[in-house]
Design goal:
The protein is α/β, with parallel strands linked by helices and 255 residues long. The protein has a single domain, classed as 3-Layer(aba) Sandwich (Rossmann fold), CATH 3.40.50.150. Helices cover 42% and strands 18% of the residues. A 7-stranded mixed β-sheet has the order 3-2-1-4-5-7-6, sandwiched between helices. The longest helix is centred in the C-terminal third of the chain and has 18 residues. The chain is globular, with a radius of gyration of 17 Å. The two termini are 28 Å apart.
Length: 255
């Protein structure tokens, strides 16, 4: 989710506002719902234990779902507003999250977690290799990192700039950085092939941001489209690896 843990000046501005604005729709939104399911599947498949850190937890949907599934979950975000929001969400659901405000560029953890999840985080960090090194140090030996980042540098555009993205990632670059940090790659894949055409059209031809308001509308057409896309991601995107997509998802292990 544009869950963000970064040193961007947007952390107390438009990024946080955007996250809180869409939060009420996030639980059922086709992207976030299916990304969470994919992450939980990867944790079940690759992680050797249950101690999880949701790094860049945003409004806390993933962390709460992990707790509900029995994982010993910690959460952190640079934004105090988002940390408070995530803790309140868990509290209202009858759980204790204890999310903390923390900078990914200055993590205090050493060999503490079986898995670290960072979704839509690394693109907000100026020195993303430092962030990867810090995640590596936070993991136990044999622990895994699961990250999701915006894909295809050629698509970098106005929306990326507005919400504080330093970059979009080409697959080869992400693999190189992950391995440079000491990780062994378990799997890497593109995700969300359906987003390619509208993003390319708006950002590179029309030179406008992709219009997303319909995605969070409660109108019947918007809800029907969200339901169809939810089925597409559940039955196709999460089961097969498309050749391209606007998101890259990687799982890597600390030896």
């Amino acid at each position: 989710m544009p869950d963000g843990l970064s040193n961007s000046t947007l952390v107390n501005g438009s990024l946080v506002d955007h996250l809180i604005a869409v939060d009420r729709f996030e639980a059922g939104d086709f992207r976030w719902k299916n990304l969470r399911h994919l992450v939980i599947m990867y944790i079940s498949k690759y992680a050797n234990g249950s101690k999880i850190l949701d790094l860049g937890c945003g409004t806390g949907h993933l962390a709460l779902e992990l707790i509900q599934k029995g994982y010993d979950t910690c959460a952190a975000d640079l934004s105090e507003d988002l940390v408070d929001y995530a803790n309140l969400r868990a509290q209202n659901a009858g759980y204790q999250l204890n999310a903390v405000q923390m900078d990914i560029q200055n993590l205090p953890y050493r060999e503490a977690f079986d898995a670290v999840v960072c979704l839509d985080v690394l693109e907000h960090i100026g020195d993303d290799l430092l962030a990867l090194n810090n995640i590596y140090q936070a993991l136990k030996s044999g622990g895994i990192m699961i990250c999701a980042v915006p894909a295809l540098s050629v698509l970098y555009g106005r929306r990326d700039q507005r919400i504080g993205h330093f970059r979009r990632y080409d697959k080869e670059v992400l693999v190189q950085e992950i391995e440079s940090a000491g990780f062994s790659l378990c799997t890497i894949r593109y995700w969300n092939i359906l987003g390619l055409l509208p993003m390319a059209l708006f950002e590179k031809i029309l030179h406008r941001e992709v219009y997303e308001n319909n995605r969070y509308s409660q109108s019947y057409p918007s809800k029907s489209l969200n339901m169809l896309l939810d089925r597409w991601f559940d039955l196709v995107e999460n089961r097969f690896h498309p050749p391209l997509g606007i998101t890259l998802i990687a799982v890597a292990r600390k030896p």
